[in-house]
Design goal:
alpha/beta, Alpha/beta knot, 5-stranded parallel sheet, 5 strands
Length: 156
């Protein structure tokens, strides 16, 4: 199952970018044998400044046709890392070819896009900067693959 992270804004070189690249590389290596990956980051930018309503069609167009859509949203469901791993495995085992995680910009995700998603995931009760949320999601993808591979990375 291919995994896309569709996000608003362009990451510059820096610590968040380094974390995203590192964890996506780890996810690809660990997930390949499990039928997970590759993981890719697709960045969109609303140059017209339309906020969440302007970003929504860009995000929708960035998701592969037929992909399972999981939005990151503070109103979404929280999962433990093992629960997240099990959810990924379940989606993979259901025959999903593509999974798209959608991360909005500073104003969040448009209500219509959020309502049309298959799942809404929260990274916790706190709100995180969208650039940091990317790094956190990538780490959890790698952690999930590690859990499914029974590797020692996840110790709980």
């Amino acid at each position: 199952m291919r995994v896309q992270i569709c996000a608003v804004g362009r990451m510059r070189a820096g610590p968040e970018r380094a974390l995203v690249d590192d964890y996506l590389t780890r996810f690809d290596r660990t997930g390949r044998a499990l039928g997970l990956g590759p993981g890719t980051l697709i960045e969109v930018e609303d140059k017209k400044g339309g906020g969440m309503m302007g970003e929504a069609p860009l995000l929708a167009n960035a998701t592969p046709p037929g992909a399972l859509i999981c939005v990151l949203d503070e109103r979404g469901k929280t999962k433990t890392s093992p629960e997240f791993a099990a959810m990924l495995a379940s989606w993979r085992d259901d025959g999903r070819r593509d999974l798209a995680f959608v991360i909005g910009g500073a104003d969040g995700i448009a209500p219509d896009l959020r309502a049309g998603a298959d799942f809404a995931l929260s990274l916790g009760k706190m709100v995180w900067p969208h650039m940091l949320a990317r790094a956190m999601l990538c780490e959890q993808l790698y952690r999930a693959a590690s859990i499914l591979a029974n590797s020692p990375y996840h110790r709980a």
